[in-house]
Predict the structure.
Amino acid sequence: MEIRRLNFHFAGKSRKFFLKLNNWHHTCVMLASHLTSQRQPNMTHYAIGSVKGNFRLLSKLLEQIHFDPENDCLWFSGNLVNGGDESLEVLRFVKGLGKKAVTVLGSEEFRLLAIANGFVEKTADDSVDDILNAEDKDALLKWIRQRALIHHDSKLNFTLVHSGVYPEWSFSKSLTFAYEVESVLSGSNYLAFLENRQQGQTRWHEKLRGWKRLHFICNAYTLMKYFTEQGKLDFQTRGAVEQTAHLIPWYRRPERVTANLNIVFSDDANFNDERVKGIYPLSSDGVLSAWKLSETPEYISVSEEQFSPAECAA
């Protein structure tokens, strides 16, 4: 579709029309990238929570679900790295799955990128040295930068994100806003984006521009947990819903526009909430969990306590 070549044959309003048409075409291509590609009709899909560098626990979970790379597809909800000491193994494994894995970005992927590019100092709590010293470091970091913030499968009728979908955004806006960040992160200006990371903006409005806009979108997808009664995001509070007075989990906001979606996300806040229709949290409270995505989703989890003494010593 070579619209750009035709632009120069038109003047004034006609040329502007074709420029807009060209942009619309690229937007359609962008939105399609968030949606599922062709897949085998009988393929089983599993959504997996925050692995956090624990390849051994991931292996245990895959063993429990009898993962078959020929017939199964894994959805990873971000935070593949940091926490455990096997972040490199996790990244290489997930990247190596190719089209049999879908990965959205979490807060730890952004932290890794910031550390790797010198914008954030590594602390004693960070366990990413194996990635930073790896021969394939550049390829792995580039692969991370090319991941999405949201993924939707219309046939399965499930949407995957790390933290959640901002309550005021429609489904189409959620995709479009995510692409604003993804296009910068995967492009040549990603260093400026990482250098200007901030959490100061706690409320969305359409007039946000520049870095404030991009970082609010990024934070909504990767750090959102609770809202205050005044409608502001609280990025810091974690813990069970019953212990957080005057705060509301993002998915319980009464005006949530995407209440019709089935949303799978990493419950790194440990909400420990009652069942909410269309909401599928992946617990990370001492476990690695998964949802088997189907008309009647099945919850599966494994913990370190399930390892035998021999496995613990390995």
Residues 12-34 form the longest helix (23 residues). Residues 1-26 have pLDDT under 50 and may be disordered. Residues 44-313 form a domain with the Purple Acid Phosphatase; chain A, domain 2 fold (CATH 3.60.21.10). The two ends are 56 Å apart (CA to CA).
